[in-house]
Amino acid sequence: MRKIRHVLGISGGKDSAALAIYMKEKYPQLDIEYYTCDTGKELDETYQLIKKLEVYLEKKIIRLKAFEGSSEDPFDHKLKTLAGFLPSQQNRWCTKYLKLDPFEKFVGEDNVISYVGIRGDEDREGYISKKPNIQSIFPFRKNIWSEDVIAKVLSNDNIKQILDLYNKIASIKNANRFEDIIQQPISLSFPKAQKLNSLLNISIKEFNSLVFSFLKTTSYPLANEENFPLLDNEEVLVRDDIFQILNDSGVGMPKYYNKIKFEINGKKGEYSRSRSGCYFCFFQRKIEWIWLFEQHPDLFSKAIEYEKDGYTWNQDEPLSELIKPERMKRIKEEYMKRIQKNGQSKSPYLIDILSDAEGEGCASCFV
């Protein structure tokens, strides 16, 4: 039996930072390796957050960098090999070459449990490695297991096996209800999500024990463990919990989330950045590009320099057009209308009233 490594990626955003704090406090018995994939193009606020986390965790956060032999930042090195072809929402090569590849090299062939900071109020799966030695766990969710594991456990083909496994661990209290649901095949009228929630609603702990028993019959990394402390985890953490964890710990929210006031046509508004990741992230909204232009003009100028030979960060508009006075005015006006439509908030962060489904930047497809 090979020793399992426990790893947790720090993206520089709020959720992964809160997860690192949460795991240290709730599961100190786990020897977790913390890492971050450094593209060389992060905001200073991201590096400041990582330093604060290292103090709190009393542990070094390992810096992973792609193309270690190059004297250039990883992003610039890869961009040259692609003849200036910028990444985009349709071609996220930066995620693969600067995030995923360094992570999988870091892991190697070791059996690894990777803890992912997707919250209980988010409807997304996140990155799941195709390498059989890497297993993702989601501590903030009601269902801590990845989609590939759930698909096997709830497969109609595995009903008999799962029922036999459950009979070995069943509690008298829940046995009949669990058995009834396990035996009911997935169908159009009873989809997989409904079957999963039905089991979790009876008992999260019992469902986790059932999944763990199933994993013992597989080649997943957790098959090598005698026990797993997260089986008893019944907590479901949402956005407000993340704020509280970060503030209570003293680490605090990344500074780029803080609201900054601006004025347009005599009306006052507020903006901020909603994501971690590179300062020129193509997932940014137009208002966030304006935020970068006004708060970090040096970085905005560098972002413009990358736009050439027909390649732009925004597929419909180069940055030089976006910052023309009339265009900036229109972007701010449209943004303020959206804020008013979504409602006002006393929170110092805008992400509590704006959608932050991709608020972790590359983490939306990585951590």
Record keyword descriptors for this entry.
five-stranded parallel β-sheet, 41% helix, globular, two-stranded antiparallel ribbon, 3 domains, alpha/beta, 367 residues, Rossmann fold, disordered C terminus, 7 strands
At CATH level 2, the architecture of the largest domain is 3-Layer(aba) Sandwich
Radius of gyration over all CA atoms, rounded? 23 Å
Largest sheet: 5 strands, parallel
Based on Cα principal axes, name the global outline: globular
Helix fraction? 40-55%
> Main sheet: which strands, in order across?
3-2-1-4-5
Helix-strand pattern:
EHEHEHHEEHHHHHHEEHHHH
Q: How many strand elements?
A: 7
- Tell me, what is the CATH class of the largest domain? Alpha Beta
The CATH homologous superfamily of the largest domain corresponds to HUPs
Number of helices: 14
Counting helices, strands and paired strands, the structural category is: alpha/beta
The multimeric state of the shown protein is single chain
- Detail the poorly predicted runs: 356-361, 363-367
Beta-strand content bin: 5-15%
